[in-house]
């Protein structure tokens, strides 16, 4: 007993001694060392629990000194003659001891120690954060991450954070509200310097902290909302800091734990739908919206999920929950609606879904069977919200005009990013939805600028299927041009960029083809409307027309589309728009080439498509219209003449005009494609040709190695009516290129030939009466092109006529010209049609000379009784004389010799042609019309004609007045 009493006495003495040391050290400084005082405080903390508040207060001062030492460590001037490292090491040693003791207490008895220690640690952290916020090493730190890293690099602060985290870990399962409330209170008191503590603790316990913070905030919000009239002013003032603290904590955690915040927010909302308490059902949604109004980050997190769950049934349930509140507190309910409108205007994420929800709820278009529809009160509320929202957006957009301060409208910015989706929604809507969406699109275009506005207008052009849908283009254009005058120019850029990408990325895609065709048809409708306005003088000029005139390069590419409808629509649009004066030479060349290709393609389609020939006729007429417009450029006249004539004699097209293709190679008589003529015979014929310099290549002829003619696919001959029609269209098109006077009445080609009855078209003279003079440059080009087509070389292409006997030298060449012209009758038609121009006949003189030479060679040796018994030569002679007469190369009465051909013999016909030849030789052709028309023939030129008349006076007497001056 004595021993036990002695031990008790010893413990009592030690306790009294440690207590005296602690009291003496706490009251006076300098008599007791720092280590002794720290040991006494630690001893009292272990043995005397009631002294914990005094001990913790002492250690609060110790932590304060240690933090101050650490932050001042870099400032060497403040440590005059002292060793800061030794002092800091002594302080940290004592703080580590107390930290270990507190952690052991928390682990052994968390229920008793954790609330006290956590409250002390949080208060101390908040106090230190605020106290040293102006410290030189702290005040320049800007971001929260930098602040957190700076404080966690401070050992005393890190110890306090470790203690706090351990307390939260111990209480989070049993009493989470206590720790969260302490955290919120400290956050309210020491914000914003305390934010780094909240961020660190929240990152350690994200789900718990987020859920408990929201519950605490909702509880506080409900307390402030219910019986608000009985609350004093101090409690109402505390509501805002508490909400701000909740927003700040969630804002810190949103960077890494946005999904947890999203789940917690939606869980809170869904719980309110099934809550038993009236206050929770009524205040949860306003609480969430209040949080969103205080943080754009929370607004972006909450909006998408909240809008997705707001179905008709959920909205009706909310209406039932809010009915009593709406009746009892109409002012609060109106404030709630204004808050909703304010938040909608602030929403950038999910903006299009919000608008779609409002439209779907206010004006449901499709009523699916079995689905619940919004009640009338809900619809009226959404309509009211929509009207208020449009008014606010209009005021915000108009405030931008003439104001240096730009009004931020996040909703319109979000809608601008989803302009295509919003445009599609507009085109699919009807009724009251349409004006709402038109206003939204107009405000969005004015807010986002020219690029967005042009993109929306281009989407309408590509998506509109009805005139009503295309009418939205004009409404949106009218509103956009108030703030963006050049929006149409940018719209055309967007449209043709999309056309180019659609045709180059996947030209064979059905979807791309339908989109391109739809856009072209809508552009055509817009052009027609613009032309009507100009005609009515409602417009002086059209931006659309002028812009399309600069886009012929893209339209030219579309002309060659594999889709026939696209090609025809592009051609029709090009015809409607017309062509500007400043087209480049390269583009003109490409346009002429492409239109010539389409012209012949339309003739092919007309012969192939029996059921839909009218479509091919329209394509032909459009080609002719384009050719007529482009022919006002002198450069294009020559191009079209080349392309049309060369295309008409090509293998693929010559059968359209009654021609036939003859390959250049000769067929083997044995049918096996191998030439069996001996080399000896070949070299003998080679030696009889015109003498050439004897090079090694000309001394010996090696023959042709395995010459095999290409097999030809059989071409079905066309009906005579089709051939005649095609020739008339071709000739008419050439006249469009060559005519001098542009004010010429065009004939209706559809009435010239009746394919069903087979009636012949108008005579050539009748056609010519409707035509004007061919221009000299076109006549020159036309004559030269025909000469190049019919003659294989230019050796004897001189326009002057040699001695008649010289035709024996050019027999082979003249025969090839005759055969070529016989295979291509359309060229004969062209020669006859345009021979009224002396310039054309002048440059065509080599061909006419070859034709006369062939006819004369045949008639000279023919033994038939009548010239008409040689039908080819007879018809050729009449055509030839007719052309020479129209071109004024033969004056009257010599020009009337064609009337004698039906009555003369072949040899007499030869003599008549020989007379003509000699006259032309003596009077060479000239391209000057006055000189050509002033020529006459004397008696010497008529001697042969008179002799033949006298010799055949019995059946030519009635023709004497045509050759004698009676």
UniProtKB/TrEMBL annotation:
PANTHER family recorded: INTEGRATOR COMPLEX SUBUNIT 5
Pfam families xref list: INTS5_C, INTS5_N
Phylogenetic classification of the source organism: Eukaryota, Metazoa, Spiralia, Lophotrochozoa, Mollusca
The Integrator complex subunit 5 N-terminal domain, residue ranges: 14-223
InterPro entries: INTS5, INTS5_C, INTS5_N
Domain named Integrator complex subunit 5 C-terminal: residues: 242-954
Gene Ontology terms describing biological process: snRNA 3'-end processing
GO cellular-component term (any): integrator complex
The name this protein goes by in its record: Integrator complex subunit 5-like
Gene designation: LOC106052276
């Amino acid at each position: 007993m004595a021993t036990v009493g002695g031990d008790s006495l010893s413990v009592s003495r030690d306790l009294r001694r440690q207590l005296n040391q602690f009291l003496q050290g706490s009251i006076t400084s300098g008599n007791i060392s720092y280590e002794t005082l720290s040991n006494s405080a630690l001893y009292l903390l272990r043995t005397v629990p009631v002294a914990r508040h005094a001990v913790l207060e002492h250690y609060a001062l110790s932590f304060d000194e240690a933090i101050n030492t650490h932050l001042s460590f870099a400032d060497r001037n403040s440590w005059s003659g002292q060793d800061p490292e030794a002092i800091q090491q002594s302080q940290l040693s004592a703080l580590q001891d107390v930290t270990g003791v507190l952690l052991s207490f928390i682990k052994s008895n968390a229920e008793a120690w954790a609330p006290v220690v956590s409250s002390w640690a949080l208060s101390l952290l908040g106090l230190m954060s605020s106290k040293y916020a102006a410290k030189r090493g702290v005040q320049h730190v800007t971001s929260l991450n930098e602040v957190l890293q700076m404080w966690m690099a401070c050992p005393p602060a890190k110890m306090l954070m470790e203690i706090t985290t351990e307390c939260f870990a111990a209480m989070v399962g049993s009493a989470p509200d206590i720790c969260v409330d302490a955290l919120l209170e400290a956050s309210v008191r020491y914000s914003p310097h305390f934010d780094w503590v909240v961020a660190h603790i929240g990152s350690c316990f994200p789900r718990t902290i987020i859920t408990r913070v929201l519950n605490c905030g909702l509880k506080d919000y409900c307390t402030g909302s219910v019986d608000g009239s009985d609350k004093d002013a101090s409690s109402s003032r505390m509501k805002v800091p508490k909400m701000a603290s909740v927003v700040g904590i969630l804002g810190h955690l949103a960077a890494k734990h946005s999904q947890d915040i999203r789940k917690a927010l939606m869980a809170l909302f869904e719980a309110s739908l099934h809550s038993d308490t009236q206050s929770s059902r009524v205040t949860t949604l306003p609480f969430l919206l209040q949080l969103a109004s205080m943080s754009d980050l929370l607004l972006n997190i909450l909006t998408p999920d909240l809008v997705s769950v707001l179905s008709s049934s959920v909205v009706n349930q909310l209406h039932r929950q809010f009915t009593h509140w709406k009746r009892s507190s109409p002012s609060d309910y109106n404030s709630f609606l204004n808050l909703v409108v304010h938040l909608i205007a602030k929403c950038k994420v999910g903006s299009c879904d919000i608008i779609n929800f409002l439209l779907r709820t206010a004006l449901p278009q499709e009523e699916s069977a079995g689905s619940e529809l919004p009640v009338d009160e809900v619809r009226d509320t959404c309509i009211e919200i929509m009207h208020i929202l449009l008014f606010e957006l209009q005021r915000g957009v108009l405030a931008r005009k003439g104001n240096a301060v730009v009004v931020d409208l996040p909703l319109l910015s979000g809608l601008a990013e989803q302009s295509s989706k919003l445009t599609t929604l507009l085109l699919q809507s009807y009724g009251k939805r349409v004006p709402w969406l038109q206003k939204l699109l107009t405000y969005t275009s004015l807010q986002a600028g020219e690029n967005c506005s042009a993109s929306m207008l281009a989407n309408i052009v590509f998506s509109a299927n009805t005139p009503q849908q295309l009418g939205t283009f004009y409404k949106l254009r009218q509103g956009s041009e108030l703030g963006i005058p050049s929006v149409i120019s940018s719209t055309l850029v967007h449209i043709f960029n999309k056309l180019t990408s659609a045709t180059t990325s996947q030209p064979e895609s059905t979807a791309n083809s339908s989109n391109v065709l739809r856009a072209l048809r809508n552009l055509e409708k817009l052009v027609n409307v613009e032309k009507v306005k100009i005609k009515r003088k409602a417009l002086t000029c059209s931006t659309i027309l002028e812009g399309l005139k600069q886009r012929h390069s893209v339209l030219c590419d579309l002309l060659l589309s594999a889709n026939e409808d696209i090609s025809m629509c592009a051609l029709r649009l090009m015809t409607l728009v017309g062509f500007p004066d400043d087209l480049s030479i390269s583009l003109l060349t490409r346009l002429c080439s492409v239109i010539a290709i389409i012209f012949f393609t339309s003739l092919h389609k007309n012969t192939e498509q029996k059921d839909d020939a009218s479509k091919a006729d329209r394509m032909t007429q459009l080609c002719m219209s384009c050719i007529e417009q482009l022919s006002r450029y002198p450069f294009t006249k020559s191009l079209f003449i080349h392309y049309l004539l060369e295309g008409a004699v090509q293998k693929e097209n010559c059968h359209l005009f009654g021609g036939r293709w003859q390959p250049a190679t000769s067929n083997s008589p044995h049918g096996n494609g191998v030439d069996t003529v001996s080399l000896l015979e070949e070299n003998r014929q080679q030696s009889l040709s015109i003498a050439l310099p004897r090079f090694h290549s000309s001394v010996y002829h090696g023959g042709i190695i395995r010459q095999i003619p290409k097999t030809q696919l059989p071409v079905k001959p066309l009906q005579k009516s089709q051939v005649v029609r095609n020739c008339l269209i071709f000739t008419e098109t050439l006249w469009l290129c060559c005519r001098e006077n542009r004010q010429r009445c065009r004939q209706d080609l559809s009435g010239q030939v009746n394919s069903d009855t087979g009636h012949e078209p108008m005579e050539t003279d009748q056609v010519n009466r409707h035509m004007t003079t061919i221009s000299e440059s076109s006549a020159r080009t036309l004559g030269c092109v025909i000469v190049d087509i019919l003659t294989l070389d230019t050796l004897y292409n001189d326009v002057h006529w040699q001695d008649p006997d010289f035709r024996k030298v050019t027999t082979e060449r003249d025969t090839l010209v005759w055969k070529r012209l016989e295979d291509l009758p359309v060229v004969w038609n062209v020669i006859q049609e345009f021979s009224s121009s002396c310039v054309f006949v002048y440059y065509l003189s080599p061909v006419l000379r070859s034709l006369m030479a062939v006819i004369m060679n045949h008639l000279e040796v023919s033994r038939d009784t009548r010239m008409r018994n040689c039908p080819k030569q007879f018809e050729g002679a009449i055509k030839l004389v007719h052309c020479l007469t129209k071109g004024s190369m033969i004056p009257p009465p010599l020009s009337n010799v064609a009337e004698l051909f039906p009555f003369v013999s072949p040899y007499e016909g030869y003599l008549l042609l020989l007379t003509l030849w000699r006259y032309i030789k003596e009077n060479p052709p000239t391209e000057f019309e006055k000189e050509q028309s002033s020529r006459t023939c004397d008696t010497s030129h008529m001697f042969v004609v008179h002799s033949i008349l006298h010799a055949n006076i019995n059946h030519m007497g009635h023709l004497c007045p045509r050759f004698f001056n009676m």
